[in-house]
Specification:
The structure holds 2 protein chains of 2 kinds. By secondary structure, chain A is of the alpha+beta class. Chain A folds into 3 domains: about 150 residues, no CATH class; about 110 residues; about 130 residues, Histidine kinase-like ATPase, C-terminal domain (Heat Shock Protein 90, 2-Layer Sandwich), CATH 3.30.565.10. Helices cover about 55% and strands about 20% of the residues of chain A. Chain A is built from 10 helices and 11 strands. In chain A, strands 6-8-9-11-10 form a 5-stranded mixed beta sheet. Chain A has a 4-stranded antiparallel beta sheet with strand order 1-4-3-2. Chain A is rod-shaped and about 160 Å long. The mean pLDDT of chain A is about 85. By secondary structure, chain B is of the alpha/beta class. Chain B folds into 2 domains: about 120 residues, Response regulator (Rossmann fold, 3-Layer(aba) Sandwich); about 100 residues, Orthogonal Bundle (Arc Repressor Mutant, subunit A). In chain B, the strands form 4 sheets. Chain B has a 5-stranded parallel beta sheet, with helices on both faces. A 4-stranded antiparallel beta sheet of chain B has the order 8-9-10-11, with no helix packed on it. In chain B, α5 packs across α6 and α6 crosses α8. The chains are: A alpha+beta, B alpha/beta. At the A-B interface, α4, α5, α7 and α8 of A face α1, α4, α7 and α8 of B.
């Protein structure tokens, strides 16, 4: 739930409850006051009757106005003096109206009379109704006003917050774009802005340091590896080796080669991420693919994999090295994760390159294998291949997609440059 | 001439190149390298870019400014393309990134030296073997022998490393590049080499290539 909604919900419900409670109290208070007024008027009437009886020793003439009626009835017993709520038939409209009455008694001569003075309270009720209506209208208007003003004020006041939030959403460590400061007159937001700024700077610094470290570490490793390599090359010149010794040497060679590839992949990845590869050229992907097939011909042949190609001319603007790595990685994966006697289909046109291969595994969790050093347990690779592929595609705005259907893995690169 | 600051690597390269009557000098830093290139001319200079007290690229610039014809092969731990392009733009003949196999370095140096020596008339002869490097044609005892691209490349590689044991891993890297997992290709090396040997023997040539202790192969001229 949005802050504004939450706030409004609480604020408005509290307001409505308070208003309703106030309204009820208000109603009863006004009702009581007005009833008291009517009672006073009735008392005045009673007093007038008493005065009249005292002066003239007979009952006054019964008259009837539109809102008031006095009735005298002879009483047999004592009459208790009290106020009652009753109803009253309007003389003009002939309809029943609420009324207030006082019942009292007067003695004329020896005869006791019960006096009932009835006063219509329709005007009072109307007044109360009006007051109540005004109160309700007031509540509604107030709630609407509150709702609108909250909306407006909160929007405006929280503007810096949303600006900061949007910046955080698009924040990317790898991008060379700082988080812009959002000035605000509100202390909390100023503090938030500063904290975000400091955090972003620190994260970037750490990230850069880490990248620099990776690159330097990989670089520094290259020299010892090349010494090992050259010493091995020298060692094998020195004479006779037994079978077990040559097996050991072979293993060392292979491991050094693996180490070299791992290191080179890491360096390459760091370089792409750092945007250090700029040698853009027009590259004919068809030629590049043919070279790659040529390189893999023995492997394809030995696994008896059927290669079907449908290649149109396609040129892209990119680094030759990166495109070579990209294509070799994808083709190599298509072979490595294939079945003996399986098939690979490669199609290339102006818009896209699709490499499909039959495979031994089911659908792969593509987001996982795009991460570093994630590979299937059966894979002999180093687990950076697809990471590098994706990074290269990102670098040039290509779209690398994966689909799995009918036991076939499809990797598609769309060249539509989205810049 | 080898200009390389890492002693281990420098010694290995020197040992690998010095046999067979080649003369090999070394320099370990910028100033000693500069004084040597100013005094002597070399067929080929193996040049490391990162040197103590200076950059290999400056030595290259100095050589080219002096219109020297020395072949230059840059070796660098930096796989950075900028260095590579700068190096080649400055007139280096080739570029090799560390780590590399000595046999690869030797093949590259041999190619540079050949190019410098023959001035385009690129013909390599060894006993009965005659290779036209421009046309990529091989004749043995005047009979043309058809080799595939990989076989041809492998033959040249062996001739450049005559008398040396060339490891399978070096062969795989030479044929398939380093982006490809080497172990995948060991079996194919065997069949390629078998084909080369068969074709050469069938054309009446000697069987030069021998397996060396299951680790690699050796081209012997004995």
């Amino acid at each position: 739930m949005k802050l504004l909604d939450k706030y409004n919900r609480i604020n408005i419900s509290v307001t409505v409850i308070i208003m309703l409670v106030t309204g009820v109290i208000y109603y009863f208070t006004i009702h009581a006051i007005l009833t008291h007024q009517v009672d006073k008027a009735l008392l005045v009437e009673e007093r007038e009757v008493f005065d009249y009886v005292q002066l003239n020793h007979h009952l006054p003439q019964v008259f009837r106005t539109n809102h008031q009626e006095i009735i005298f009835t002879p009483a047999n017993g004592p009459v208790q003096r009290k106020f009652i709520d009753t109803s009253y038939r309007d003389t003009k409209d002939q309809d029943m109206e609420p009324a207030r009455a006082i019942i009292t008694s007067v003695t004329v001569g020896s005869q006791l009379y019960k006096i009932t003075v009835i006063q219509s309270t329709v005007e009072t009720e109307d007044l109360i109704g009006d007051v109540f209506l005004i109160t309700i209208i007031l509540i509604v208007v107030l709630v609407i006003a509150l709702f609108l003003s909250n909306r407006l004020i909160l929007r405006r006041i929280w503007q810096p917050f949303y600006t900061i939030l949007n910046q955080l959403k698009v924040f990317n460590l790898a991008e060379d774009k700082a988080v812009a400061s959002v000035p605000s007159t509100i202390d909390e937001f100023t503090e938030l802005d500063q904290a975000v700024g400091i955090m972003a700077t620190k994260a970037k610094d750490d990230y850069l340091n880490l990248k620099a470290f990776t690159e330097n570490a990989a670089h520094e490793l290259m020299t010892p590896i090349s010494v090992i390599n050259s010493k091995l090359d020298t060692l094998v010149q020195t004479g006779q080796f037994s079978d077990s010794q040559s097996q050991l040497l072979n293993d060392i060679y292979n491991t050094v080669a693996r180490l070299t590839r791992l290191n080179k992949s890491m360096l390459l990845l760091t370089k792409i991420e750092n945007g250090l590869i700029h040698d853009q050229q027009n590259i004919n992907l068809k030629e590049l693919l043919s070279t790659s097939f040529w390189q893999y011909e023995e492997l394809l042949g030995s696994l008896n994999i059927k290669l079907t190609t449908q290649l149109d001319d396609c040129e892209v603007q990119a680094s030759p090295l990166l495109m070579e790595v990209l294509i070799n990685n994808l083709i190599s994966n298509a072979i490595r994760h294939n079945l003996p006697g399986g098939s690979i289909t490669v199609s290339l046109d102006q818009q896209q390159l699709q490499i499909s291969n039959s495979g031994k595994d089911g659908e792969i969790d593509i987001e996982r294998v795009f991460k570093r050093f994630q590979k299937s347990s059966a894979s002999e690779g180093i687990g950076l291949g697809l990471t590098i592929c994706r990074q290269i595609c990102n670098n040039y705005g290509f779209n690398l997609q994966y689909q799995f259907s009918q036991n076939t893995h499809h990797f598609t690169i769309s060249f539509a440059v989205t810049e | 001439m080898i200009i390389e600051d890492e002693a281990g690597l420098r010694d290995s390269i020197e040992a690998y190149f010095t046999e067979e009557g080649n003369i090999c000098e070394t320099a370990h830093d910028f100033s000693s390298a500069m004084s040597k290139v100013n005094l002597y001319r070399y067929d080929c200079i193996v040049l490391d870019i990162t040197l103590p007290k200076g950059s290999g690229l400056d030595i290259l610039k100095h050589l080219k400014a002096g219109q020297q014809a020395d072949g230059v092969l840059i070796i660098s731990a930096k796989n950075s393309l900028d260095d590579r392009l700068t190096g080649l733009d400055l007139g280096a003949d080739d570029y090799l990134t560390k780590p590399f196999h000595l046999s690869e370095l030797r093949a590259r140096v041999a190619a540079i030296v050949r190019r410098k020596a023959f001035n385009g008339n690129n013909i390599l002869t060894l006993n009965e073997i005659f290779i036209d490097l421009t046309a990529k044609e091989v004749k043995i005892n005047q009979t043309a022998v058809k080799f595939t691209r990989k076989e041809y490349s492998l033959l040249l590689y062996f001739i450049a490393n005559k008398g040396k044991v060339v490891s399978k891993s070096a062969i795989a890297e030479h044929l398939w590049g380093d982006s490809i997992d080497i172990a995948d290709n060991f079996d194919f090396i065997y069949s390629h080499i078998k084909n080369i040997r068969k074709k050469m023997v069938e054309a009446g040539g000697k069987d030069y290539i021998q397996a060396a202790y299951g680790m690699g192969y050796k081209f012997t001229d004995a």
